[in-house]
User: What shape does this take?
Amino acid sequence: MAVSSPAQNRVLELDGNGSYVELPPNIFQNLTEATVEAWAKWDRFNNYSRIFEFGAPWQSMSVFNHDRNNDLRFNLYPRRARENPALAYNARANGILRSNEWTHIAVVAGPGGMKLYVNGVVVATHTNEACLSDIKVEQKNLLGRGLAGNAWDLDFCGQIDEVRVWNYRRSAEQIRENMNRRLTGREAGLVGLWNFDDGLATDATFRGNHGKLVGNARAVTPDMPAGMQLIAGELPVTPAATVQPTPPPMPVEIATAHPPVLYWWIAGALTLIAALLVWLALMLKRGGSAVTATALVARPSLEMPEEKGIAAVDAPDVKERALAELTEFAKQSLVQGLYSQRNALLETQQKAHRELAELEARLAALRISDRILAYEKRIAELERELENRTGELREVANTTLELLRRKVAEEREIERAARRFN
Assistant: This one.
């Protein structure tokens, strides 16, 4: 459904207890590559609660919070992974979600591998190049609920909005440019758009793949920060160079891995600001005395009392204005510095994820036991290299080590599961 003027924004609200949206079956089965986007806000982290799942039990594409915590997972199982855990491909970002906070999530699949984006930034990847066309079964498509029907897979509790499915891999720039825009449904490559603005699960594209609200699922007016309201799609698209994407929440693993660096940086910045303020106050005090003395010499006895009064008022005003300007400058510098530090930490995490993805690509054909040995060998190498690494290289190595240790733990779990099924 095209929108000619800004409409009232509504979102899908789900209570986590039998409420979800059912989309028509098999509408994505021919997609050899895809991008799926959505805004989501978890009221609470139910066990493995899905934003969406397309496909069949244990053979699907899905996005959800892992276990009952704030880790975000993107699964893509092209063949039934229950019988073969080695096919359970996933990209995972630990500790990145926040309850009661709107987050833009996008996943990209197909040739080039899996990518998971949070607020327009890549937070996890995997080398698996499958897509929905590789899931050769009757496909069901749900929002807010998983397909397996397990007792441990619970329904999504919170709100979801602006679910979009594209028939190609969108770039990070394309995702960031349009994540805050209300689309018309006529955009090239858009094969499904559910924005709930009409109070239903209507597909806004010409394909008319309308969904069905199940249980207590309903469309409501959201309580969103003003900056997150969707802008009408007819407005001119902002050039990529001027886009200022909302920075994502700092992943917990990064925040906890490098606290000394961040804390020392903040302490240094605050110390510098305090020193600048003291220096300016001393300079202004001296300057004020000099100005007064000069005025008295220049106009000793002919100066009117009113003029003296005016001169006395001007000096404190100048001091206050100068102090206020310096304080504002210092605050802005501190904020910019913190964002730079945060971006540097996110870049460190992305470099570590890339190194892990390259290693996974080289080891994909090996048996599980051989992969574990290869990962452990790389861990031992990095631990030795740490002795000679400093600065950013050391931070990247530490983050890579953490990711590799988790990967080994995941591979061991897959190995144990495979033994149980054999």
Notes: The longest helix spans residues 305-363. The chain has two domains: 11-245, 250-422. Residues 45 and 69 are 6 Å apart (CA to CA).
